[in-house]
Specification:
By secondary structure, the protein is of the alpha+beta class. It has 3 domains: 45-131; 136-216, Roll (SH3 type barrels); 316-658, Neuraminidase, CATH 2.120.10. The protein is 17% helix and 39% strand. The chain is built from 6 helices and 43 strands. Strands 1, 2, 5, 6, 7 and 8 form a 6-stranded antiparallel β-sheet that branches. Strands 9, 10, 13, 14, 15 and 16 form a 6-stranded antiparallel β-sheet that branches. Strand 5 (93-103) and strand 6 (106-115) form a beta hairpin. The longest helix has 68 residues, at 221-288. The radius of gyration is 32 Å and the shape is flat.
Length: 659
């Protein structure tokens, strides 16, 4: 390296933009100068490939550090400063990738990080970060009310502003001595990697969040004396009121006995008339339950509304469960990838099998074999289609519809999603399901992303129609009503609020109708849905809060009707003592054997629809599978006895194969 190059290197390292190497030959240097940026060539500098790492939270207190935007090549990387760390000292960074830059023999590890406050992102030296969260909080949880007082040291009450990913403490006010603060909520706030407990307290009109260390349950002496005096006065007033009430009650009792005798003669005829009116009103309410009224049309979606509860009244004491062995209930587990997913770099040519751990029942002895590997990349984004949630076939079994979501939205009900329609028959004819060349669909998607599509790729891509993005909710429930040939999915299903189901247009692949309804204030819709050939709708739920007649981890099944004219449901008054697993993933109906399938991760149960409400243990089929995979959906063909399970990591259709 000559003297000029030494001088140029020094100027580059002292500048606000850290430039390490150059990505191209001198033509790119000229282009950079035209944009007013100076790029300096540095030799003996290179980097490793950027690799994914486990997501981990960090914070930085650096006053001089920066994040950088990466360009250039492995042999001549370029890092340009894009954010200053001192502006983010009260926030959390999350790493997702790493690389090592070597300059003059010295290795420096860099992490690719994203900021929780404003999604700022870039590469940063690992040495500039400290492990842990900062300026973040958990969701408040209700706790038993409890009285607290100011600790000996000074303390303050704050208002927490912002969302959990970035919160700030505002409007601090000093805690008052000798005042009782009533705790109602609890949450954790992270500061410089430390997890600190905060209580939400109220005192008169004052309310806010207080660090637990500034509070004590010990009542101050002054407050204790005041409390005793108040209690004594209250007891005296209570005694006086009791004596007065006793005298009043005696007089009232005499008058009541007289009135009771008079009313008794009337009560029989009145009760009879009331019972008749109640029966008539009940019948009228049943006939109108769940009927819709048409509302406005916006963005191509016509909304329909119901009034009142759409679920038929029931008594939990009349509910029962059929016995299912505990061993078949699968607890939640860490999801694993397909065995060859990473080894084949996602381009898996051969079929894989998930074996059977245990099974019971006449319809349970089947394994799962991959039959179609779905694409990961879109034309413009790597990995965009890596999170499928549900799948269903068209009525003629020609098309497969798969619903996907991204990670947008503040919760599951506000996620963005889209539907991809696969021409199942043409893709099969093109050999994409043939063992040994099952990578063809994913390869076509990769080639499309890199703009190197072959004629074979084009034939495959012509069989795939990608729909527009819309607010889909968690999208676990896309299914076909074979009676009406309509596609439906559940968009909103939170407890205590109106649920919403939407109808998907099979041509445009976007919703064209929505129906709002409430099962009842204490019951949510659940996130899965299916229809039988008669058009009856079903969903199932996993019991978290036990009834005397329904233990924790039992399964409840609901049956009803969904259309733009009416929505109504009733609880099937017999469930399963154990559901397939802790996570409700999907539900399906097999027209060939007339059975409902309940799906959880690594576990599938089925029951005959004809025996719902009076099942025997022998009617329940249950299968547990190997692999610890995430089961996303189940789909049955309408013209054959063919069933498929949608799995993730990587996304694929696995066929049920009877042994």
């Amino acid at each position: 390296m000559n003297l000029k190059q030494h001088v140029a290197l020094g100027m580059a390292l002292l500048g606000s933009a850290a430039l390490i190497g150059t990505s191209t030959q001198p033509n790119n240097v000229v282009a950079s100068k035209r944009r007013g940026k100076k790029v300096t060539k540095v030799s003996k500098t290179y980097r490793t490939k950027a690799t994914k790492v486990s997501h981990k939270s960090y914070y930085s207190l650096s006053k001089t550090g920066k994040t950088y935007k990466l360009s250039g090549s492995l042999k001549k990387p370029v890092l340009k400063a894009n954010h200053t760390l001192k502006h983010y000292v009260k926030t959390t960074w999350t790493r997702s990738k790493q690389m090592v830059v070597t300059k003059k023999g010295k290795k420096v590890r860099y992490y690719y990080v994203t900021n929780a406050k404003d999604h700022a992102a870039g590469w940063v030296k690992a040495s500039a970060l400290k492990a842990g969260k900062n300026g973040q909080a958990t969701t408040p949880k209700k706790v038993a009310t409890k009285a607290y007082y100011k600790n000996a040291k000074a303390g303050k009450i704050y208002q927490l502003k912002g969302k959990n990913r970035y919160v700030t403490l505002k409007s601090a006010r000093k805690l008052a001595a000798n005042k009782k603060y009533t705790r109602t909520q609890k949450r954790y706030v992270y500061k410089h990697g430390k997890k600190m407990t905060y209580y939400y307290v109220k005192q008169g009109k004052t309310k806010g969040w207080v660090w637990s260390g500034d509070l004590t349950t010990k009542m101050p002496a002054k407050a204790k004396a005041k409390f005793k005096a108040k209690a004594k006065a209250k007891a005296k007033a209570k005694s006086k009121a009791k004596a007065k009430s006793k005298a009043k009650a005696k007089a009232k009792s005499k008058a009541k006995a007289k009135a009771k005798a008079k009313a008794k003669s009337k009560s029989k005829s009145k009760a009879k008339a009331k019972a008749k009116a109640k029966s008539k009103a009940k019948a009228k309410a049943k006939s109108k339950r769940g009927l819709t009224t048409r509302g406005a049309t916006a963005n191509g979606i016509t909304t329909y509304h119901t009034t009142g509860d759409v679920i038929a009244p029931y008594l939990s004491k009349n509910f029962s469960t059929v016995k299912v062995p505990n061993a078949y209930f699968v607890k939640n587990y860490a999801y694993q990838y397909s065995a060859s997913y990473h080894a084949d770099q996602t381009l898996q040519p051969k079929s894989e099998t998930l074996g059977v751990v245990r099974h019971m029942g006449a319809n349970s002895n089947y394994d799962l074999r991959s039959t179609m590997y779905l694409p990961l990349d879109s034309a413009n984004e790597k990995g965009r289609n890596s999170n499928p949630q549900s799948a269903t076939f068209s009525k003629d079994d020609h098309y497969l519809y798969v619903m996907y979501v991204d990670k947008s939205g503040t919760d599951a009900d506000t996620q963005k999603g889209w539907v991809i329609r696969y021409d199942w028959q043409k893709l099969t004819a093109l050999g994409t399901r043939k063992n040994g060349q099952m990578e063809l669909i994913r390869q076509a998607a990769v080639d499309q992303y890199h703009d190197r599509v072959t004629s074979q790729d084009r034939a495959i891509l012509n069989c795939i129609k990608v729909g527009p993005t819309f607010n889909s909710g968690h999208a676990q429930s896309l299914t076909l009503n074979p009676k009406t040939n309509e596609l439906w999915f559940i968009k909103d299903h939170k407890s205590g609020v109106k649920a919403m189901v939407e109808r998907l247009n099979a041509s445009t692949l976007k919703p064209d109708a929505a129906v709002n309804f409430t099962l009842k204030s204490t019951l949510s819709m659940g996130g899965v849905l299916t229809f039988d050939n008669a058009g009856n709708a079903y969903f199932w739920t996993h019991t978290v809060a036990a009834w005397p007649t329904a233990p924790v981890n039992s399964a409840k099944i609901y049956k009803g009707q969904i259309s733009t004219k009416r929505v109504r449901f009733s609880l099937v008054m017999q469930g399963l003592s154990k559901g397939p697993g802790e996570i409700v993933q999907s539900m399906g109906y097999n027209q060939a054997n007339k059975r409902l399938y309940l799906v959880s991760n690594g576990s599938i149960f089925s029951v005959p629809t004809s025996k719902l409400g009076h099942l025997k243990s022998s009617d329940v089929s249950a299968t547990n599978f190997t692999g610890k995979r995430e089961f996303e959906g189940v789909a049955f063909m309408h013209r054959s006895n063919s069933g498929y399970v949608l799995l993730n990591r990587g996304p694929a259709l696995y066929q049920m194969n009877n042994k």
